[in-house]
Amino acid sequence: MCNLNNTTDFEFMKTLQYGVHIPTFILGLIINSVALWILCFRLKNWMESTIYMTNLIFSDIFLLFSLPFKIYAYQVGGKWHLGPRFCEFVESLYFVNTYGTILLIMLISLDRYVAIKHPFLAQTLRSPKKAIIACTVIWVCVWSASIPNYIQSDSGPENQTCFANFSEFWKRGIIPLSMETIFLIAAVTVIFCSIQIIRTLQRVDEEREDTNMRTSMNVISSNLVTFLLCFTPYHVAMLLYFLAKNCYIASDYLTPLRAFLQISQCLATINCCLDAMYYYLIIKDFWKSKTKSTEETISTHTS
Questions:
Q1: Could you tell me if residue 160 is left (phi over 0), alpha (psi between -120 and 50 degrees) or otherwise beta?
Q2: CB 95 within 8 A of CB 143
Q3: Which of 195, 219, 265, 271 could form a disulfide with 281, with the two C-beta atoms 3.0–4.6 Å apart?
Q4: Dist. CA 1–CA 4, nearest whole Å
Q5: Are 186 and 103 in contact (CB under 8 A)?
């Protein structure tokens, strides 16, 4: 393994954490809390889309919960005073929910693709029960993947660090490469589904000149750009840093690549706020359908 002095990064990270994570934490908590309140107390309509969205909201909230502790870890120079097990938990919370979010966005894209592109097939493939099962499988898989973090931890009371010492992580190529593979599969799926959905909606829009279709296309396009913008730099940085740590790239690049990795991690967490575009689409659809249903009921009673 090539060596790197991690202490040189802490001053840089202190500024970055304050500038990115604190606004992300505050804004993300507000957005996700409001979306969850609307889902639970206003819509109360548990269809496939709302089930996926509720799981995505919880994933974002769990990730946001880890951010203050991530900030704290860097403010104290990586030294941790809240116990090794709690450190392992918040580290897992951060990484688990990053990939929980990625996989849930992939599921949401697949769900909307099947519903719009293959409406007859959707009657067989889509149901609230199947959506719950799919989300449960994702949660079991991503939390199971965090188990090695608890097993291989060897931080004693005299040397407790958090969000700072991942030497074992970079030695085990299977872990970062598995993360890269998960993202690649999710990214290809989201791109394919989004393009197919947009093409289908464009044809409908040309036939009907429907403003709602154009709004839906804009939201789906925004979600696609947001997904790629937030998560692609992080996985590019992770791959390059993995190669540098294992001396496939000259060690001179370790410091700038580590800075690139940390910046891209901050960018990835911003997705907790930008998911609001999807919340807007689903809540708007259900609100309109609810209003339409109410109007039809009133019309039936008055006629």
A1: beta
A2: no
A3: 219
A4: 10
A5: yes
